[in-house]
Amino acid sequence: MHTISRLAGLLIVGALVSAPALAAGKGDAKAEGITVNGQTIPASTFNAILAEQKAHGAPDTEEVKTAIREALIRRELLVQEAKKKGLDKKNEVQLQIEQARQEILGRAAVMDYVKAHPVSEDKLKKEYESIKTQAGNIEYKSRHVLVEKEDEAKAIIAKLDKGEKIADLAKQSKDPGSKDNGGDLGWSAPAAYVKPFADAIKLLKKGEYTKTPVKTDFGYHVILLEDSRPLNHPPYEQVKPQLQQRAQQQVVEEYLRDLRSKAKVN
Fold it and tell me: How far is CA 202 from CA 153, 191, 209, 226, in A?
């Protein structure tokens, strides 16, 4: 229901900003049907938007209720005006209405499927343990220089052998994210890197650098390990919302793949 929330939010902000006197002067906004030029806005619409706004942190106050009421009135007035001018018959408007209808129905189908296929606590905990295992128990602070050719990487290693600093040599790196910081990659677990890089960094001791270029899909790396420390994983309860969201996304993706595999598409 995020579309309703965004729309309601915009309307509510407009009502609050443009009609503060009205909001302050009315204290009787209720979840009752609203009639605008003989057209009724059902109480269910008011209640749905109020519930959505409360779920997103809005206070349950008369000011908010009045703002919602005014927003619904303004929206209905605009709808009526559009119909008077025949705008609802225009092809481009009809197309937008149909697209909105399809999006709402599609979202409803996804929500219905997710509700019917909840992710179990056991699955979330197994995923948490799997991520911990993949991340390992140590994180590393490193610097690197990334170049296009192996000979360039070998030349950098030769300069390091002569005592030059990797922070200075990093100026020629093609990694835009670290070259201006002396090649600094900060603290990361090996799982954050592509496998050849991760394998190489785990073999280094503090202060050591790779004596041969490390090839990845990005090019050739020269890596220096500055330090390492035990990796403290966040507790399960702290990351559970993210795990749940990712698991639900996987459920939806599997659902869509299944629908796609059964569909006849020409």
Answer: 19, 11, 11, 12
Return d(Cα 200, Cα 211) in angstroms, integer: 10
For tokens 């629908």, what's the residue?
Answer: 259
Neighbour count for residue 256 (Cβ, 10 Å): 14
Q: Among all chains, which residue has been given the structure tokens 């202060």?
A: 207
Parts of the chain belonging to CATH 3.10.50.40: 138-230
Q: What's the CATH code, domain 138-230?
A: 3.10.50.40
pLDDT, tens digit, 9 for 90 and up, residues 181-237: 999 999 999 989 999 999 999 999 999 999 999 999 999 999 999 999 999 999 999
Per-residue model confidence as pLDDT tens digits over 110-163: 999 999 999 999 999 999 999 999 888 999 999 999 999 999 999 999 999 999
Return d(Cα 37, Cα 78) in angstroms, integer.
Answer: 12
* pTM attached to this predicted model: 0.61
Measured CA to CA in angstroms, residue 154 lies from 71, 160, 183, 255 at distances of 67, 10, 17, 49
* Local structure of 189: helix, strand or coil: coil
Residues whose CB falls within 8 Å of the CB of residue 222, separated by 6 or more in sequence, listed in order: 144, 145, 147, 153, 156, 157, 160, 166, 169, 209, 210, 213, 214
Contact 150, 215 (CB under 8 A): yes
Tokens linked to 9? 């939010």
